[in-house]
Amino acid sequence: FYRVCNYNWAIFLYSLKQYCEEGEGLPYHKRKF
Q: Around 8, how many Cα atoms within 13 Å sit in the side-chain half-sphere?
């Protein structure tokens, strides 16, 4: 369970970073796990 949460959080932070740097990115709620 902890690994899944940590994995999702890492992807969320990565998406946020990409959005801030490039001004674009996939919305977190539209990603499928």
A: 11
